Amino acid sequence: MKALRWHNVKDIRLENIDEPVAKKGEVKLKIQWCGICGSDLHEYTAGPIFIPADAPHPLTGDAAPIVMGHEFSGQVVEVGEGVTNIEIGDRVTVEPVYSCGKCEACKQGKYNLCSLMGFYGLAGGGGGFSEYASVPAHMIHKLPDNVSFEQGALVEPSAVALHAVKQSKVKVGDKVAVFGTGPIGLLVIEALKAAGAAEIYAVELSPQRREKANELGAIALDPSESDIVEKLHQLTNGGVDVSFEVTGVPPVLVQAINATKFNGETMIVSIFEKEASIHPQNIVMKERTVTGIIGYRNVFPAVISLMAQGYFPADKLVTKRISLDEVVDEGFEGLLKERNHIKILVKAE
């Protein structure tokens, strides 16, 4: 079968590899759609970050080259021994988190903070940029009939957004700011709408992405037109309750912190390639808090339920659909050249 494998920085190859089989405790899927994640792009331009390159991952036993892709949906075509709650023909999405189940974080149910945490499609085991994948059954979530395969491929990034909002101090009626309206930033806007935020400000340089943020119900602001921190303080009478940093750009983190009011909170959702310098005094003097989140935990069912109600709409978020043959040129390179794309989905065929 065809599969896209990471070998090194800027070295991702579409190769023919053996088609997987459903081993004990696994479920084999015919992949329908797989999204290109910002994490995939980071691995392409600056990896390895999550990918095990020098030694096998402790939970998968795999090392590069590995099949990429962790935002995907598919249809069950084979069920391995011992799997009783999933049937051939089920329409599903995948929660691609590997965890050890033994460390203190896992014992507390915080499996996304596992000391050995990895992602299916980044740490090995297989991936969604392929024709088929055999996935541990506990990662499988069924899709209701009114949630499409395209939406199914958006469940994973939507879970990141929903987890960020759930872990924040956001309350119904709050004023919030989202710095960066790429795919995750727009999904954070959707999650904030579901959480009852009263005013959602979207800070974004790209006019196309600002337009998309407006379309989703946010108040889009261009940070190049004025001092964005001062502007947000004026609009909110003292600063937002919570800000979400979703760019991974160091100076933007400073803006996100300073845009909050006293006792405000900044949620760091991005993966940063470089260090960011912040002045602790800006946190101390206002008793602000800065919180980081990674991935998600225990939110896939909630995301799928919200999708069934109309949140996280694929028709407003997917801007390009390509084939496996086009992933490098039209996908990764396309995203680097045209940063106005929101979500690119890959059809496995």
Number of domains: 2
The rounded distance between the terminal residues' Cα atoms is 9 Å
Helix content: 25-40%
What's the helix count?
12
Condensed summary:
With 349 residues, the protein is of the alpha/beta class. 28% of the residues lie in helices and 27% in strands.
Please describe what this structure looks like.
This protein has helices spanning 38-46, 104-107, 149-152, 155-167, 183-195, 207-215, 228-236, 250-258, 280-284, 300-308, 314-317, 327-337, and strands at 2-8, 11-16, 26-35, 66-67, 71-79, 91-94, 97-98, 118-119, 132-136, 140-142, 175-179, 199-203, 219-221, 240-245, 260-268, 289-292, 318-323, 343-347. The N and C termini lie close together (9 Å). Strands 3, 5, 6, 9, 10, 17 and 18 form a 7-stranded mixed β-sheet that branches. It has a 6-stranded parallel β-sheet with strand order 13-12-11-14-15-16, sandwiched between helices. Helix 4 packs across helix 5 (183-195) and helix 4 (155-167) crosses helix 10. The chain is of the alpha/beta class and 349 residues long. The mean pLDDT is 95. Strand 15, helix 9 and strand 16 (289-292) form a beta-alpha-beta unit. The protein is 28% helix and 27% strand. It has 2 domains: 2-154 and 312-347, Quinone Oxidoreductase, Chain A, domain 1, CATH 3.90.180.10; 160-292, 3-Layer(aba) Sandwich (Rossmann fold), CATH 3.40.50.
